Amino acid sequence: FSGSLAAALKIECIVEQTYGQWWQSLHRTMLRGVLGKTFRLIGYTIQYGCIAHCAFEYVGGVLMCSGPSMEPTIQNSDIVFAENLSRHFYGIQRGDIVIAKSPSDPKSNICKRVIGLEGDKILTNSPSDFFKSHSYVPTGHVWLEGDNLQNSTDSRYYGPIPYGLIRGRIF
Amino acid sequence: MLRGVLGKTFRLIGYTIQYGCIAHCAFEYVGGVLMCSGPSMEPTIQNSDIVFAENLSRHFYGIQRGDIVIAKSPSDPKSNICKRVIGLEGDKILTNSPSDFFKSHSYVPTGHVWLEGDNLQNSTDSRYYGPIPYGLIRGRIFFKIWPLSDFGFLRDSPNGHRFSDD
């Protein structure tokens, strides 16, 4: 009886050993496989994230404008397509609608029409003033105004903004 | 043969675009090496020094007083300027020259920063064109690479009296 018990124990020991080795090797390859897969996934994500980012920055993208300052041309919550090539080739012209970083809040964007480029003379008084006053747009700046003049904070409020803040042109 | 050449060309273009985009994003979001020219930041940065700039602070809005930043020039969108941040939004800035009798000051508007070069006599900066919007800042310079005699982190401003915190 003790002999068969010893034999059973021995067999059990061998089975456990083999099983343990098999599990270890599986574990090692599985871990390496999982690690490899994770790194590949991260690599692909970074790759395509970069390409998408560059596409949005250099070519254009779809975005949603909110706010009443460009009515009736752009209503609240309209979806528009913006292109960013004009900015890089300095092709923004008078009358274009541009999207720019807000000068008073770097985290948000504003969406206005270009009324004047550098060197242009801008009338800065409201129609009710008696005397007309005007100013010149300094070099490297643009003068923006919303289409909805009564309800728009634009360059009449914060002055001309540097061209460097413009991000794209809505068309 | 034409199809093979065409296929190879497309693959080459594809790889170029891929790695170009990754390099561009690395430069924009992490940092890069660039060369500063001009005398407006002497003695901290001499003409034709090579420095290392990081762009993370800009995105996390971590630019502080005393940092040297690189920004797009407000008078010329094609060029960059390299100055020290003297005041953040809301700070009071002394805007007169030391020879004036009466002190005059102004406040930096929200979303703007006040920049000045270290070489006050020879620097066109915010004393000339006013505060610039934060959105023009592109990165923060924190390390000088060349010349090797001046290798290391950048010194503090020699014009400490310009920082007023009240």
Automatic annotation (TrEMBL), chain A:
Keywords: Hydrolase, Membrane, Mitochondrion, Mitochondrion inner membrane, Protease. Residues 48-123, 131-170 form the Peptidase S26 domain. The keyword Secreted does not apply. GO terms for molecular function: serine-type endopeptidase activity. The active site is at 69, 112. GO terms for biological process: protein processing involved in protein targeting to mitochondrion; signal peptide processing. It comes from the Eukaryota. Signal peptide: none annotated. Its EC number is 3.4.21.-. The keyword Hydrolase applies. Its main location: mitochondrion. It is found in: Mitochondrion inner membrane. GO terms for cellular component: mitochondrial inner membrane peptidase complex. PANTHER family: MITOCHONDRIAL INNER MEMBRANE PROTEASE SUBUNIT 1, PROTEASE FAMILY S26 MITOCHONDRIAL INNER MEMBRANE PROTEASE-RELATED. NCBIfam families: sigpep_I_bact. Catalyzes the removal of transit peptides required for the targeting of proteins from the mitochondrial matrix, across the inner membrane, into the inter-membrane space. Known to process the nuclear encoded protein DIABLO. Heterodimer of 2 subunits, IMMPL1 and IMMPL2. Belongs to the peptidase S26 family. IMP1 subfamily. This is Mitochondrial inner membrane protease subunit.
UniProtKB/TrEMBL annotation, chain B:
Residues 19-94, 102-146 form the Peptidase S26 domain. Its EC number is 3.4.21.-. It is found in: Mitochondrion inner membrane. The keyword Acyltransferase does not apply. Pfam families: Peptidase_S26 (PF10502). SUPFAM superfamilies: LexA/Signal peptidase. Heterodimer of 2 subunits, IMMPL1 and IMMPL2. Catalyzes the removal of transit peptides required for the targeting of proteins from the mitochondrial matrix, across the inner membrane, into the inter-membrane space. Known to process the nuclear encoded protein DIABLO. This is Mitochondrial inner membrane protease subunit. It comes from Mustela putorius furo. The gene is IMMP1L.
